[in-house]
């Protein structure tokens, strides 16, 4: 029988993985408050349904897969509640780091470009370009075939490059 | 792997359009084509920095997450207690108010639990049959 999860394990998962989960969540849902919800829900799911024994390190690929699925699920719920298909929530500007970044217009343009991509393509960009995962790790995390990961990432990058050409 | 590779211009067009599908299949199976596309699509450092800035986590993320999950766990525990209390109260009230309750027939329609007799299928209880005698 699997032992009950320990509260210390939950703290450990949060301390180790919250930032990476947040980046994936933010890239998919855009809104910082919604990204916070994704992080919290992902952490609780990981804590309760961990594929490893208590005290052992949770595999990052598995955790990022949970984060991606949770983000997409919450984003779809948000869209259904507001009846706004195929859009991302506007950033509420709640994140202090966002306020500190110069070139707000440039970031807005970047978010617009990201918005033209689908959820998986945004997650691909975050996992590869920001978290630095290998193609193999991304394929596992997103449950996509390796060639598909590559071809979709190539095209997603091209979309971003074209959109940001004027700013470079 | 296909020994004849598409020209770089063709790969560039594929990046723009994703077409033709035949070329997509070729690219999926050709390491050489993938290497060229990797180079064509590579993001410059400035754009990566912008991406990092756009998705960077707030400095107090860990504290917020700890606080958020603690609150969720407390809410779940409180809701669980409420449901338990409601269930106990409901069962108690049901026992007090409906001692003859038969869940299949509804209140007041069940056989007398003290009689030991139960009507068979299609047979009316004695007090509902005509003539009063069987």
Which superfamily, in CATH terms, is the homologous superfamily of chain A? PhyR, sigma-like (SL) domain
Distance between the termini of chain A: 57 Å
Q: Strand fraction band of chain A?
A: under 5%
Order of helices and strands of chain A: HHHHHHHH
Order of helices and strands of chain B: HHHHH
CATH class of chain A: Mainly Alpha
Could you give a short account of the major beta sheet of chain B?
A: none
Please give the number of β-strands of chain B.
0
Kindly describe this structure.
The complex is a heterodimer of chains A (168) and B (134). Chain A has a single domain, classed as Butyryl-CoA Dehydrogenase, subunit A, domain 3. In chain A, 70% of the residues lie in helices and 0% in strands. Chain A is built from eight helices and no strands. By secondary structure, chain A is mainly α. With 134 residues, chain B is mainly alpha-helical. Among the domains of chain B are: 45 residues, no CATH class; 43 residues. In chain B, helix 2 crosses helix 3. The radius of gyration of chain B is 37 Å and the shape is elongated. The C terminus of chain B is likely disordered. Classes of the chains: A mainly alpha (168), B mainly alpha (134). The interface between A and B is large, with 45 and 37 residues.
Label this structure with key terms.
heterodimer; A: Butyryl-CoA Dehydrogenase, subunit A, domain 3; 8 helices; B: 134 residues
